[in-house]
């Protein structure tokens, strides 16, 4: 039947059904030996379908905050052209305006870990939307550069909350077998937001310069209304409920997200054990940070993997490529404004289209193969952009090659390191540390993003745009070695099993083989 069949079969550890006897049976079922009874099978199938739809809906609603981040990144690349003309800002102010979002969002991410442990994952998402909305409205109405920065400050903090909490929430609510695909949703929505931002630039570029950028930024307020509505539909994370000793509520949520009652009890027992609620251990804020500052060998491995992959995602220059794609294309020879914005729409389309490839493959091929394809492909593309801008220069060939390699670079990013880095940081940490350790990863991501975005123009002036891309290609080559040495395969394992994987280095090395055996076993059935 292959792996597709596996995913359809339910939500066990590997979603694995061997022969005709199912590994689990419903606790309240009166069927004993005759487990393959038609009506029971139909009931299980119907329930399985409804839980899949429910989890999918939760993942989509939780990812809506990511549209805001993506839209802001995409729209600013075009809006900055008009802001420059309207408010007469300097190049340094332009760099600060574009790059400060990432630096500011790290404060949101830092606060988000603690906030989500106190008020819950769900209401942290609500808070993120409210803060962002206020910032977007302030930017839209800004009469000066100073007010624009205040709006950017609020938007950055809102985005910081949003980007760190969505993958954690989705990882905590998803069954093991589809967790990779579902936790990639925020990355899809970031890409969708970037694409909408580019389209918005293109659509409103014909308006007078003092109105066009305000309309472009103002449209970003709209997704927040959908987020508000979503909060009345999605449940709280079962793992957070267990941390707060609300075990019955957690069981109710698990019954909605896992289609097998026996497995619900098994999963609940694992979560209780991981949360330390089954013993006298108490969840303490002080203890969390103390543990992270002087980590055990296994936690140190987790932190190096989680924070490292987040930093590599950004220092390979993806935000510079997205924010400053008009400047890159100008360097290749495109001068007309609307043609520049049309070329950036092509970048947005590639970035969004290829994220879908990752969604379909992440739970089939695994995390590590996608990371290899992505990092090696990006290294080649970044080097090629450097060659194009440095040696080929302006002209039709230069323009065609620049567009091809920039689009290929963002496509390779979307296939692997873009979504996989968020999947990994939301699944490798133990429950008691998950929110705050993932927040630390998000901070690393945002700091690197901000440094790249705020220094790109200055570095490009010093060593040329082509030279900057040669530097990015070297960093990308190092990221290939990082993936090889420090990222384990987590496909198909429960969050609690992944925690054990880091405790045993030998098991880490053997994890690919072990999972390969499972695939082989399933395909033989």
From TrEMBL:
It comes from the Eukaryota. The chain crosses the membrane at residues 54-84, 96-113, 125-143, 149-170, 182-199, 211-234, 340-362, 369-393, 399-425, 437-457, 463-487. Residues 58-491 form the Major facilitator superfamily (MFS) profile domain. Gene3D superfamilies: MFS general substrate transporter like domains. The keyword Metal-binding does not apply. It is a multi-pass membrane protein. Keywords: Membrane, Sugar transport, Symport, Transmembrane, Transmembrane helix, Transport. It is found in: Membrane. This is Probable polyol transporter 4. It comes from Populus euphratica. The gene is LOC105119007.
């Amino acid at each position: 039947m292959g792996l597709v069949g596996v995913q359809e079969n339910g939500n066990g550890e590997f979603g694995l059904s061997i022969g005709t006897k199912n590994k689990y049976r419903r606790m309240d079922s009166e069927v004993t030996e005759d487990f393959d009874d038609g009506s029971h099978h139909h009931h299980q199938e119907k329930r399985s379908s409804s839980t899949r739809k429910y989890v999918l809906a939760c993942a989509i609603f939780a990812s809506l905050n990511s549209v805001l981040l993506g839209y802001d990144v995409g729209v600013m690349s075009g809006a900055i052209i008009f802001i420059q003309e309207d408010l007469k800002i300097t190049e340094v102010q332009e760099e600060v305006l574009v790059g400060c979002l990432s630096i500011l969002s790290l404060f949101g991410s830092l606060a988000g870990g603690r906030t989500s442990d106190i008020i819950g994952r769900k209401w942290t998402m609500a808070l993120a939307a409210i803060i962002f909305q206020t910032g977007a409205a302030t930017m839209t109405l800004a009469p000066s550069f100073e007010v624009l920065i205040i709006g950017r400050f609020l938007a950055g903090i809102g985005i910081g909350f949003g980007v760190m909490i969505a993958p954690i929430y989705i990882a905590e609510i998803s069954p093991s077998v589809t967790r990779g695909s579902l936790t990639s949703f925020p990355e899809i929505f970031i890409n969708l937001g970037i694409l909408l931002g580019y389209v918005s630039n293109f659509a409103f570029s014909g308006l007078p310069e003092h109105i066009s950028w305000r309309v472009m930024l103002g449209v970003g307020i709209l997704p927040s209304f959908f987020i508000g509505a979503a909060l009345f539909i999605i449940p709280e994370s079962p793992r957070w409920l267990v941390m707060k000793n609300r075990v019955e509520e957690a069981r109710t949520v698990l019954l909605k997200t896992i289609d097998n009652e026996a497995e619900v009890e098994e999963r609940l027992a694992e979560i209780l054990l991981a949360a330390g609620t089954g013993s006298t251990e108490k969840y303490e804020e002080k203890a969390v940070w103390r543990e992270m500052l002087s980590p055990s060998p296994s936690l140190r491995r987790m932190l190096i993997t989680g924070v490292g992959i987040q930093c590599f995602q950004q220092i390979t220059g993806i935000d510079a490529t997205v924010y400053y794609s008009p400047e890159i294309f100008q360097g290749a020879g495109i001068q007309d404004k609307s043609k520049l914005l049309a070329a950036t729409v092509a970048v947005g389309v590639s970035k969004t289209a290829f994220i879908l490839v990752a969604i379909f493959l992440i739970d089939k091929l695994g995390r590590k193969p996608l990371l290899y394809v992505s990092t090696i492909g990006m290294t080649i593309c970044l080097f090629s952009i450097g060659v194009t801008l440095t040696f080929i220069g302006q002209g039709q060939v230069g323009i065609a090659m620049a567009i091809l390699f920039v689009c290929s670079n963002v496509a390779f990013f979307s296939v692997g390191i873009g979504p996989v880095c968020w999947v990994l940081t939301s699944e490798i940490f133990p429950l008691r540390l998950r929110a705050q350790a993932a927040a630390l990863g998000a901070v690393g991501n945002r700091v690197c993003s901000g440094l790249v975005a705020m220094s790109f123009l200055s570095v490009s002036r010093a060593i040329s745009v082509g030279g900057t891309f040669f530097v990015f290609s070297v960093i990308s080559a190092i990221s290939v070695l990082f993936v090889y040495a420090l990222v384990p395969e987590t496909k198909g394992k429960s969050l609690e099993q992944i925690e054990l994987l880091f405790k045993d280095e030998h098991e880490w090395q053997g994890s690919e083989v072990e999972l390969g055996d499972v695939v082989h076993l399933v395909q033989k059935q």
